[in-house]
Design brief:
heterodimer, A: 414 residues, alpha/beta, Rossmann fold, eight-stranded mixed beta sheet, five-stranded parallel beta sheet, globular, B: 287 residues, mainly alpha, two-stranded antiparallel sheet, two-stranded antiparallel ribbon, 11 helices, 72% helix, 4% strand, Leu_Ile_Val-bd (chain A), transport (chain A), ABC transporter substrate-binding protein (chain A), amino-acid transport (chain A), BCAA_transport (chain A)
């Protein structure tokens, strides 16, 4: 075929047009949309990283089964941050070096603080999975990052509010927490929420200073004896992971159930019941980021729940499963709607879109990209009638946006 | 008074872990950084045997003894392939090598038992509390205190009175001379190291209902056990016993007098002890 000037111009224009097309459009021709997932898959935080990986993989499987993003399959590229900021930065550089522009990362704040300053240069859009530290949406705020996690004022302020509503008869609360400064935010938020709601109802409540225990300690009996001696009928516990379970085990001997009218655990949810079985406290409240049975009429939540049961055979998934699923969903939805992988188009899309996720409608506050979804609380405890030895008795949900702290992107919250 | 009893409980729990640590230092002059990991393996092995609800105290103790045997055998393997090779090298290499052993152990536990938290209840008989002179004392605390005292008495008898202990002491003090006198030195060392690892496994089994099982369990007591060994005098079992009691009591008083600074007094106490007795309360010992 003879190439004349007209043919040459037409072919060149088509070629240049194809090159100029956004990545996603070229992706429609068979190229996958790649999302980098950086989480902790080794060391002490591995348990949570595994949940995040499972939830993210469930999301990718579901989205691909539904046709992917504008016809392109989603590919999840998973890297271990080795639970260190250096590990996170190394993984981030490797993935961005391979052309990945979309990221989900979590859950530890220190590791996120390592990668946040790199987002602009790499033209990356990120969803921070499950991260709760205030710094991420305040002094370390990055306009390219969205926190799909629950800040302490939000979930524990709401928690205090809920307890004040549920138990107006309790006028004195004791608190127990590990001597980790970051956890002080939790006891402060709970105390503030409790006092605000109580005062609104024209009552007064006394909240005692937290009894402190060493983080990773072996024996909590002295502290248990102290809180029992406080005479408070309400108790809020802010120990985490293995510490919390050891504490409940040791407290059993002291008949903790009988000494307090209301027992609240900060966020250990089903880890306690799964480990303690029939020796779980008789009634224990806990905050959770996602509990499928509380999300009635939410088909996405049900599907994610079923997919997790199929994957792990566990009927009670950790809340990170739902949060990580929704993180990937947020990214995929934004890419589909924006038709682009560019942060300049994705960021405003995520700010305005409210896709239906496992947690409910996913929406972020525009000013600081803080997640503003619903809050879920569960009450569970010993139950001889259930083969597990425990059951969930009650759930409660609050609108998270009402408890979000003031937005101060770029500066510390005072 | 409760603080005193609880201090003794903490002290005896720490001694159960520290006993093996000080023994292996006494015989091989190696600070075994992997000791906590073997304590953890002992706990997991015992939990596999008794399940989440041991039927009796005897079942728990029997599971702890089996865990001790399993960890003792593992200890002999580690001695054969790792400790023996690093016995005469710089301390830094010893720390790195035993740290590597610890990482292998943690990986092994994750593979076998997974990452989820596991819990074992105290068996009937030690799952409640008793009133002693109108003081409420958890019966499991009495079990830990008794276990610590029994382990100390048996260990002290074996080291200072039994022929085996005297043979091991002779090897620890002068291996060359012991060999010249016809003692099978490699076998003696292997037996002593196996015994010290077995103590870690035993501690893991006995303390099982007190802690939550997770791959980080080894860290729970490791630091306190190291402090105990240092304060008591490296390699000195009697010193470790006294130091563990003192540490437990200091920790208890810390909770009562300085509740805003939990755990701080233990470190202040360690500094004070080392200033007063740089070689430990009873001095360093080769058993």
């Amino acid at each position: 075929m003879r190439l004349n000037r007209r043919h040459f111009l037409a072919t060149s224009a088509a070629g240049l047009g194809a090159l100029a097309m956004p990545g996603i459009l070229r992706a429609q021709q068979g190229e996958a949309v790649r999302i980098g997932l950086i989480t902790t898959l080794s060391g002490p935080g591995q348990l949570y990283g595994n949940y995040i990986k499972d939830g993210s993989e469930i999301a990718v499987e579901r989205l691909n089964a539904a046709g992917g993003v504008n016809g392109a399959k989603i590919e999840l590229v998973v890297r271990d941050d080795k639970n260190s900021p250096e590990g996170a930065v190394t993984a981030f550089r490797e993935l961005t070096g391979n052309g990945i522009k979309l990221f989900a990362q979590g859950t530890f704040t220190a590791n996120l603080l390592g990668t946040l300053p790199l987002l602009e240069d790499a033209d990356v859009t990120m969803v921070m999975v499950g991260a709760s530290a205030l710094a991420l949406t305040h002094e370390a705020y990055n306009p390219r990052a969205f926190r799909l996690g629950f800040s302490s004022p939000m979930c524990f302020g709401g928690y205090g509010n809920l307890m004040a509503q549920k138990h107006p008869e309790i006028e004195k609360w004791a608190m127990l927490r590990s001597d980790v400064t970051a956890l002080a935010d939790i006891t402060n938020a709970f105390s503030n929420g409790l006092k605000a709601e109580t005062e609104k109802a024209g009552r007064k409540v006394e909240v005692l200073d937290p009894v402190l225990v060493p983080y990773g300690g072996a024996d909590f009996r002295n502290q248990i004896s102290n809180i029992i001696g406080s005479g408070a009928p309400g108790l809020f516990n802010v120990l985490q992971g293995a510490d919390a379970i050891s504490y409940y085990k040791q407290a059993r001997t002291f008949s903790l159930d009988e000494k307090f009218k209301v027992l609240c655990d900060s966020a250990n949810e089903f880890a306690i019941a799964k480990a303690m079985g029939a020796n779980t406290p008789a009634s224990l409240w806990s905050w959770t980021g996602w509990y499928p049975a509380a999300n009635k009429d939410n088909a996405v939540s049900d599907e994610v729940h079923k997919a997790y049961i199929k994957l792990r055979g566990d009927e009670y998934p950790n809340w990170y499963i739902g949060v990580s699923h929704d993180s990937i969903l947020t990214i995929a939805n934004a890419v589909a709607k924006a038709g682009s992988l560019d942060a300049a188009k994705l960021v405003p899309t995520i700010e305005t879109e409210t896709p239906q996720g496992a947690l409910g409608k996913i929406h972020f506050r525009k000013e600081d990209h803080a997640f503003a979804g619903d809050l879920t609380y569960i009450r569970f405890g010993r139950d001889d009638k259930n083969a597990n030895g425990w059951s969930v008795f009650e759930t409660a949900q609050l609108p998270g946006a009402e408890f979000l702290e003031r937005a101060t992107p770029g500066s510390k919250l005072n | 008074m409760f603080t005193l009893v609880n201090g003794l409980t903490t002290g005896m729990a720490v001694f159960l872990v520290a006993a093996g640590l000080t023994l292996v230092f006494g015989i091989m002059r190696i600070l075994n950084f992997a000791h906590g990991a073997f304590f953890m393996i002992g706990a997991y092995v015992a939990s596999t045997l008794v399940g989440s609800a041991p039927r009796s105290v005897l079942a728990l103790v029997a599971a702890a003894v089996v865990a001790a045997l399993v960890v003792g055998v593992l200890g002999i393997v580690v001695q054969r392939f790792v400790l023996r090779r690093i016995q005469h090298v710089d301390e830094h290499y010893m720390l790195i090598a035993t740290f590597a052993v610890m990482l292998v152990c943690v990986g092994f536990v994750k593979l076998i038992w997974g990452l989820e938290f596991l819990s074992v209840d105290p068996p009937p008989g030690i799952d409640t509390g008793v009133e002693i002179f109108s003081l409420f004392v958890p019966s499991f605390s009495l079990f830990i205190i008794s276990s610590g005292v029994v382990v100390f008495l048996v260990l002290d008898f074996v080291i200072h009175r039994a022929w085996t202990g005297k043979m091991i002491t002779a090897i620890a003090r002068d291996g060359w001379m012991a060999e010249l006198l016809g003692i099978n030195v490699p076998a003696g060392i292997m037996a002593a190291v196996g015994g010290s690892f077995a103590l870690a496994g035993l501690a893991g089994g006995l303390l099982l209902p007190n802690q939550t099982l997770s791959p980080a369990l080894g860290d729970t007591f490791l630091l306190l056990a190291f402090i105990t060994v240092v304060i008591g005098g490296l390699g000195n079992v009697r010193g470790a016993f006294i130091a563990a009691i003192l540490l437990g009591l200091i920790d208890g008083l810390n909770t009562m007098l300085l509740p805003a600074y939990p755990g701080v007094a233990v470190y202040v106490g360690m500094v004070a002890f080392l200033l007063l007795w740089p070689n430990g309360i009873l001095g360093e010992s080769r058993l």
